[in-house]
Structures
1.
Amino acid sequence: MSRCHRGFTLIELLVVIAIIAILASMLLPVFARAREKARQSACLSNTKQLLLALNMYAQDYDETYPPGYTAFQDSPNWRDFVVPYIRNTQVLVCPSQRKDRPVSYGLGYAVQGRSTNSWDDDTRVVAIGETVGYEAKYWSVLPLSSDPATCSNVYIDPRHNNGLNIGFADGHAKWLAKDATENGDIIWQ
């Protein structure tokens, strides 16, 4: 009695490979979006931690936020003031940050060196946000200087699904779409 062992034909094998390739091409963008959402959540956590550090600093220094960035290299900037209030300096780096950018987060111009009681509605005042420079500022398409020490124009970076994480002076942090940050409901300066 003879047994017939029949394998796959080349056509059958190619059809199976094509089906797997089609399924993979449909699933890869979904996985990429899920990975970016996870990075966005980690960044939101970083923003909240930095916001808490800013508020702890303000409590210790007569309800006043730290000064912002200065152009002098030996001068401390806001990060130097809040580092004692954070356990791990990794919160200063967004997981989605481009490698050619020196800083992930910037202190809002509206809070730099000001009292925590300076606003009637601190739920709209930006205390910290994702930047491509040293301080949180208006959206812009202008190029940055290649030398961060001489950079005078710094801009918000919508690196998470065309939006960014922002921490507000009242202590809450959330992700906002780029369009929502341009409608005048947020106080940058």
Note: Helices lie at 10-60, 78-82, 178-181.
2.
Amino acid sequence: MNNGQWLGLVTGVLFGFLLQKGRVLRFDKQVGAMLLTDMTILKFMLSAILVGMAGILMLSNFEIITLSHKSMNIGGVLIGGALFGSGWAIMGFCPGTSLGALGEGRWHAVFAIIGMVAGAALYAELYPFFKSTVLAWKDFGKIGLQEALSVSLWVIIPSFWAGTISLFFWFERRGL
């Protein structure tokens, strides 16, 4: 294995550990997130976004990585988001939590993993059809929040941090 693969393995194991310690693999947390009565999963995801957005921008500024993102395609976002949300609501797992639950020994997560792999294979087989239909819907190109708002990412990131931390305090006051 090369250094990138080792780093990926270590990062994946650490992420799984944090998922387990954050209790976001638990069924009651998944249901609470769907019912908007337990914000543990949302807080976990937002915390990862906060750290990731600052870390990725710093790596980009130091020219360790090059930022590049896919084009903003309305059809892909709407259909993909609906499928992801439906799968999460039905199975109670997203890709990361399904593997984490399997790692905890909850074998029913295998059905979610099989469903995700089958869905990915089906998408690959139907890609030519999707490319001429759903993916042909409005495409905004490679646009990000920075381009949409015409402001520096160093303005967006602290604003997002402040808003997210305020949201965390609100969740805590509400007992969520």
Note: The CA atoms of residues 21 and 82 lie 28 Å apart.
3.
Amino acid sequence: MKKNSLQRQIILEELQKEKNHPSALEIYERVRQRLPRISLGTVYRNLEHLAASGFIRKLETVGGQRRFDGDLNEHYHVRCLYCGKVEDAHLPILSRLNHTFGKLSDYTIMGHRLEFLGICPECRDAGKFEN
């Protein structure tokens, strides 16, 4: 196996272990425990390759840090407005939404993404948000 393939495989394994949608830097810190000589640039390049190849999802939020998801099943996300943490939002996919919006627009709808915005329990408990 080529070095790049091994690096890519380890990056993918580490990402798939996580359910917290880590940033490239967080993935780098985990991968470095297994591959101490890997560079942050190598992790970035491999994450981009894995996303472009359809092995992972790249989550790009407006004004937020790019995060990565190893779960390819259709699902929604919730993002903390203070710390930027992204988690899965456990609710059924609204598949009729594609059909409904498709009828209301001139677009051919291929799918949709939904992100809820809120304050995570840690930030709320730390007093970063008051009701």
Note: Strands lie at 57-59, 67-69, 76-80, 86-89, 115-118.
